[in-house]
Amino acid sequence: MRMSVTGHLEELRWRLIRCAAYIIFASLVAFIFVDKILYILKLPSKDLIENFLILKPAEAVTIYIKTAVFAGFSVAILPIFWELFSFVKPAIDKSQNGSVIKWVTAAFTLFVCGVLFIYFIVLTPAISFLMNLSQGLIHSPVQLTLSSYISFVCALLFCGGIIFQIPLLAFILTKIGLITPRLLSSKRKEAYFGLVVFAAVITPTTDAFSLGLFVFPMIILYEIGIIFSKIVYKSKILPGGEVYEQ
Questions:
Q1: I need a labelling partner for 170 at 20 to 30 A (CA). Which of 9, 29, 129, 221 fits?
Q2: What's the confidence (pLDDT) of residue 203?
Q3: Model's pTM, two decimal places?
Q4: Tell me, what's the pLDDT at 171?
């Protein structure tokens, strides 16, 4: 049964409301463990930043809330993916009833891999470079506020989780017919340039090493996306029964 535009918008509204509820509930739970979460977020700065500053009386409250919301969103991303893929499932796959579980599992796994990659591979070198650069500018020990540090770390972790969705995004866009593997291959140079620009924006450094830590994984993910796109494209059958030409 086809749904009207109004019906789709109403469904989307309720799904967004549920997503907001997931984040709020998960954030409230995360607030119980906020001290442990803060400790984990500060670990990459160990031996690089001796002490953090708090400049405003209410800044500690802001830090706690900011940390709890980020942790809550990270936990709630699983049901959020469920709502997202349940909404777009009719356009992605009209035949497989269990496809939503597959999409959600893949998206969540990639998100976790992206967050772990940033946390264990990128953060410490990036913080080290930024601290050395700052110290070279002011010629004295760098003092950093805890609020700005948490914002920086959370932003990078979130970007890592989103970046790792590239192969799945290519898979889905090919599935619904918006892109083809030939298009992805022909626009490879433009895509690489865009990835470099994106990495330069989300990593506030001009250091080639730190930039490369983002760019090379994204290039690899883009190439994996092309492979996934080819797999989907070859499996798509026209009404007459023939396979789409590449």
A1: 9
A2: 63
A3: 0.84
A4: 86
